[in-house]
């Protein structure tokens, strides 16, 4: 097979169907940009999970005098010193799952509330004795929350046992939902791209049916005839894949590092690094090359009788 002939046929085919080739490039670029974006979104969610789940605490809130009057969980009155000592003792025995226990008094809770919600209209009406004492528990494994909840929830002097992981689960559930929505759009765009590739190959094969007929008469092999069409689709797809890689790199640069600079404005979020982006680029390029080539190959078996 002469490489020069194949290359010349590729150029002819791309120029002859310029509009459809442009449509293929755009659809492949958008679909693979969404594909890469969904992969990076999954990495980001996993990174955030590892970062935040390592910091979550289980909080045991104790009854105060106000709770004893209004909360049915504290019907037996405010927590006593004996009850607090018993809770501390039981927590000390749970060394297999508890990493650290921190006690927060009413004064400390009031101070933290003023620091976080000092601008709230309610801040001026609260007093330290209305705040709850609590134990902040750092677990060795955040999944073991239920063990602590079972041991202390409903106990005399305990108003509630709260797991911060539950709040994060709702956030990550939302992020995962958005990620799946992006994947659905990506799948739709891939279908559109494949249909455009098949249609482009079909039109190209029909417009050059005379040349392919002559090639058959002179004994050219089926693959020799099909190769230019497959290569055209692969080249168009590779251009689209390159554009998709450019989208991802530019998005990472301007959204996280510069421009919006989310890495500086949202210090609480541990953003993925450039290594996560760069490792996705070869996969996107390989997909952009193989997907159109395979689509063209199977399309030619139907539309080009060789």
Quick take:
The chain has 306 residues and is an alpha+beta fold. Helices cover 69% and strands 8% of the residues.
Please describe what this structure looks like:
The protein has 306 residues and is α+β, with helices and mostly antiparallel strands. Helix content is 69%, strand content 8%. Strands 2-3-1-4 form a four-stranded antiparallel sheet. The longest helix has 44 residues. It starts with a helix and ends with a helix.
SSE series = HHEHHEHEHEHHHHH
- What's the helix count? 11
Biggest sheet, in brief? 4 strands, antiparallel
Q: What's the mean pLDDT score?
A: 80
Rg calculated over all Cα atoms = 31 Å
Number of separate strands = 4
Describe the structure using short key phrases:
306 residues; alpha+beta; 4-stranded antiparallel beta sheet; 69% helix; 8% strand
Strands, helices and their partners?
Layout: H1 3-16, H2 18-53, E1 58-62, H3 65-70, H4 81-93, E2 98-104, H5 106-117, E3 134-139, H6 145-152, E4 158-163, H7 164-207, H8 209-217, H9 222-257, H10 262-265, H11 274-303
Antiparallel strand pairs: 1-3, 1-4, 2-3
């Amino acid at each position: 097979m002469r490489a020069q002939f194949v290359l010349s046929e590729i150029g002819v085919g791309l120029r002859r169907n310029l509009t459809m080739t442009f449509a293929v490039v755009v659809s492949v670029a958008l679909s693979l940009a969404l594909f890469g974006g969904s992969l990076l979104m999954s990495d980001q969610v996993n990174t955030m999970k590892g970062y935040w789940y390592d910091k979550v605490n289980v909080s045991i809130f104790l009854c105060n005098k106000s709770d004893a009057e209004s909360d049915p969980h504290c019907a037996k009155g405010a927590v006593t010193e004996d009850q607090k000592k018993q809770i501390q003792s039981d927590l000390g025995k749970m060394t297999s799952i508890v990493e650290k226990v921190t006690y927060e008094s009413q004064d400390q809770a009031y101070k933290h509330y003023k620091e976080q919600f000092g601008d709230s209209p309610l801040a001026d009406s609260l007093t330290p004795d209305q705040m709850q004492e609590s134990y902040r528990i750092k677990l060795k494994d955040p999944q073991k929350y239920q063990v602590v909840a079972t041991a202390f929830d409903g106990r005399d002097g305990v108003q509630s046992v709260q797991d911060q992981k539950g709040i994060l689960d709702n956030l990550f559930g939302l992020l995962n939902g958005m990620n799946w929505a992006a994947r659905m759009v990506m799948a739709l765009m891939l279908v559109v791209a494949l249909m455009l590739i098949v249609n482009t190959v079909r039109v190209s094969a029909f417009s050059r049916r005379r040349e392919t007929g002559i090639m058959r008469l002179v004994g050219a092999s089926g693959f020799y005839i099909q190769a230019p069409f497959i290569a055209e689709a692969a080249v168009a797809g590779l251009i689209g894949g390159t554009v998709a890689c450019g989208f991802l790199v530019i998005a990472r640069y301007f959204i996280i590092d510069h421009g919006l600079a989310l890495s500086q404005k949202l210090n609480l979020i541990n953003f993925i690094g450039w290594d996560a982006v760069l490792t996705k680029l070869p996969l996107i390029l390989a997909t952009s090359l193989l997907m159109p080539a395979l689509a063209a190959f199977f399309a030619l078996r139907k539309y080009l009788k060789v």
